[in-house]
Structure formats: C-alpha cells, structure tokens
Write a structure and sequence with these properties.
Layout: E1 2-4, H1 10-17, H2 33-48, E2 53-58, E3 64-74, E4 77-84, H3 93-108, E5 113-119, H4 123-130, E6 135-137, H5 143-149, E7 156-162, H6 163-180, H7 184-193
Parallel strand pairs: 4-5
Antiparallel strand pairs: 1-2, 2-3, 3-4, 5-7, 6-7
Length: 207
C-alpha cells in the first residue's frame, strides 16, 4: 500500500497530479515532469534530515496512485499532505493509506500528533476526514496554530490525530470486527466503506 519513493514512479505520478481535479490541492505544484522529479529527490533528502516523511501510495497491483507526506516535523508533530489520482477516488484508498501511514508514524518514528490543514472549500477532503473516527476538529483545541495557518486569510480548518486516539480507535475497530466474526479482508472493506465500528453498533463497551 505504501512504499518509499522511487524515481521510476515519477512519470506516472506526475500524469495523475496534473489533473485539474487534483492539481489545486497538491502541496508541491510542479509544472513539468522534470520539476516533479527534482521535487521528489528533495523529499527523499528531507527524510534523511528527519524533517519530512513521504511515501508513494500503491494500488493492489503495485501501481503508484498518489503520495502521502508528513512535513514540518518538529517536537514529534507534523502536518499531513495527501493527494491521489482521479481514477482512484471513492475506492477507499485514501483512508487505507492514511491509516497505514499513521501506523508507521506512531510506531516507527515516535510522532505524537499529526495536524491536517483542509481548505474550507475542499468538500471532498472534508468529507473524507469526517469518516475517520480518530480525527478531531482542532480549530478551538489549538487556537494559536489555527491562527498561524490562516495568517493571511481564513481559508483552512485545522484537524489533528493524536497517537492515543488513533490506537484507541484501531483497537475498538479490531475488537468489533472480532465480535462480528469478520475476516481481515472484511474488516479492510468496512474501513474502506467508512464505517466507524462504534461500540454501540454491537452493544459492547470497551472502557
């Protein structure tokens, strides 16, 4: 699902990124394949400096379909940036990629909090975030950071994912899946469909 960047994937990713439905929401807006190649090399170097962690999102056949990145890493926090090609919209890849990435960040890199900036007019991204039970709207939870990301004008909502909240949500989902008798494949499909797996759904408390 996720892998470290490979320069051989840049051509396919660039072709997906320049789609008008994707390009406005991409953090690193590259206007040529050569620029995209150079930017990818920079991201790989930033990871060596531990200021960024970036991965290519793959489909089941191993084709690159988008990227996911944690940037501005400091004090065990960072900001998330994700984009995906139009042919892969609405198929659950976004959610699975985020959960795989959060698992890596929290387990392997010692990250405690991941922040997400979402443009208020980006309805697709806002709906995708709303499906993730471990994400909190942080406009009021972190007012200083909310003001900082909207310094010039009020265009972003701020969200956050805390390490503890993510693991609690994952544990609840797994336990609910076991109670329902789901296989691993069924559990993944339910994640892709956006089901929250609340304890109320099966009448069980996991306090």
């Amino acid at each position: 699902m996720l892998k470290k960047h490979d320069l051989h994937e840049c051509h396919a990713l660039y072709n997906l990124m320049v789609d008008p439905a994707v390009f406005p929401y991409v953090r690193h807006k590259c206007h040529s394949y050569e620029e995209y190649l150079f930017t990818t090399k920079q991201l790989m170097n930033l990871e060596l400096q531990k200021t960024s962690i970036s991965r290519t999102i793959m489909d089941e056949l191993g084709h690159p379909i988008g990227t996911i990145q944690l940037y501005d890493i400091a004090n065990r926090t960072g900001f998330l940036a994700t984009w995906m090609g139009v042919p892969y919209f609405g198929q659950g890849y976004n959610r699975r990629a985020k959960e795989a990435f959060f698992t890596e960040l929290f387990l392997e890199h010692g990250i405690e909090t991941v922040f997400l900036k979402v443009r208020k007019q980006n309805i697709r991204s806002k709906k995708a975030v709303a499906k993730l039970p471990y994400v909190q709207l942080a406009n009021d939870l972190n007012p200083q950071l909310f003001k900082a990301i909207n310094r010039s004008q009020n265009i972003y909502d701020l969200y956050q994912v805390d390490r503890a909240s993510f693991w609690e949500s994952r544990s609840r989902a797994i336990q609910c899946g076991i109670i329902r008798g789901w296989s691993d494949g069924q559990l993944q499909r339910q994640y892709a469909a956006g089901e929250e797996h609340s304890s109320a759904a099966v009448g069980v408390s996991f306090a």
